[in-house]
Task: structure prediction
Amino acid sequence: ALNHPHIAAIYGVEDMGSTHALVMELAEGPTLQERIAAGPMPVDEALDVARQMAGALEYAHEHGIVHRDLKPANVKVTPEGEVKLLDFGLARSVVDDATATVADLTMQGQVVGTPAYMAPEQLDGSRVDRRADLFAAGALLFEMVVGRSPFAAASNLASMHAVLYERPPALTGASSVDAVDRIVRRALEKKPADRYQ
Result:
């Protein structure tokens, strides 16, 4: 349903008996997870990746799609520095069902997504909209600059607690880092109404 330069294209769906496959565009280069494992990114590079992710998310949101599983493993950075968002497997159309909650889409009590990148409303089963993706994008921007997730913990339960109740440490340093900190803080607000809209 989406055709954007920063979203990996799906070219086909194949069914061969009990085997099902998606034919996806080849997105060369490391995932953001692999890139961050090499160490924190320079602020300018992190902002460029974040800008491209934001453009892809804006396009998806304009088409009524919320990703719901934005994390470093689902973002590729090509050798040319182009971002490709991957794995819309948990995506939800908010146009078709504007009142859907996570609880409506899954078994009661089942967590859908990766806890350290899920917005608080995803964790508590409330209605999820584009602001959940903006929360995840803020977590990714923090991680690109610092080299670790703002809500990483020893267990999924501890990560969920951190997302719901804790604030990551402030980013401090040069004026560009202070500006990134302001962006991250607003994106990681616990209440969707307090985030970028």
The first helix runs from residue 32 to 37. The chain has seven helices and six strands. The first strand starts at residue 10 and ends at 16. The two ends are 23 Å apart (CA to CA).
